[in-house]
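ARCHIVE CARD
Drawer: 12
Card no.: 0347
Subject: one protein chain, sequence and derived structure
Cross-reference: see card 0346
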Amino acid sequence: MKKGAFLLATTCILPLAAVMGCTVGPDFRRPHMATPPRWGYEPKTGSQTYAGAIDTRWWRSFDDPELTGLVDRLGRQNLDLQIAAHRIREARSQMKAAAAAGLPQANWSGSYAYRQLSTQGIFSLAEPRPDASMNFNLYDNVLSSSWDLDLFGGIRRGVEARRANQAAAVAARRAAALAAVSDLATSYMQLRGVQAQRAILRSNIVLAETNLKLVRDRFANGVATKLDVSQAAAQMASMKSGLPDLESGEAALINAIGLLLSEPPRALEAELEKPAAQPPLPASVPVGLPSDLTRRRPDVLEAEARLHAATAEVGSATAAFYPDITLAGNMGTESFAASDFFALPAKQFSVGPTLNVPVFQGGRLIATLQFRKEAQQEAFLTWRHTLLNAWREVDDAMTAYARSQSSHTLTGQALLQNRAAYTAATQRYSQGATDYLNVVATHAALLSTQSALAAIQTRSETTLVSLYRALGGGWDYAEVASSVNP
């Protein structure tokens, strides 16, 4: 290279090196919103909540091996988690593609063409060489390279936005994992509740059949009336009529669990239709602090990542207003004969920077920047709404959990009284001291209270699951499963 060209290149490159790395636009900072110091409502009796670290394997606190086994399979089999994993890979690929725009690019091309020049076209203005033919072969071989210096960070902001989108995809998968395990646990609790109500109903049907036999015997002996027989038979038939609805609900819940595990209908029937006791509530439930929610709950983290991406896009739109320089070079050969394709005299090359200065874009750049700023504000408001909703869900779940335990205690007391009333009414009827209507009424009250107690137990369990879901703990199982089975 000649000395003058070297000095010129140095004079141009040094200022460029000084401004390279300058990134325009706003830098992202984690948003902040004042948080309450503690949760507002806690149970006074029964299962207690306290400000401890969230149990990320909370389903194990129910001490139910079947539930634990289902969750272990959920991480490997759930289709929503597999779809979310592919979205993470898509986001990672987009980030890599965006980053590649800031690296040097190189391409090679080779071509051959047989051409004939027009004697009436532009070449007629030049005098051709004597005996020159207007028909010729043209061989072309070019290695081209370019490098966008990204002086003001447009490409870097784009990479930052794609990286934030990848973080959002990871958070979205965690949200899907949390939703899946919560739905599975809820369906499982409801299944055991339905099975408990079915067992209660069947045991009461047995009692009703015993009572009907007693009434018929008394009627045969002339002690009871036809009305007593009809009342006893009607009560038994009424109880039996409730079985089909419970059996239908059981089948639907088994299928719901099967869908979460990507199983066809009835695939889990043999495994789950055998009744089991309703899982007991844990003695204590750690709920952490409200400030922990922004670091743990997936939907809040996803909204924060979307805000980060929107902020980076503002920087990318801002960089479009500034000049940009691309270093480009071409080297190759051009010849009329294939034998001269790689000959030294056939070489050609060009090298030099290209300066691109936006002068007039018809308002496109201004509109794009305004659009990105509005999208950033939208993302911030979405984050704020998501966090407020998260706090609300936790508070509602804690209140519902405490209230359900109070209802469980009161219903348990009512069950004791109804059981005693039914026993007394049955004995008095056997002794002829009262009519059968009292037996029917007390038996109906007993059945209603037993069913209500099982339903409240189910509600307490599902409310606790909702509380765990609102707290944002429980998606870790999917992380382990994906590392073992990518």
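Annotation on reverse: The radius of gyration is 38 Å. The CA atoms of residues 205 and 238 lie 9 Å apart.
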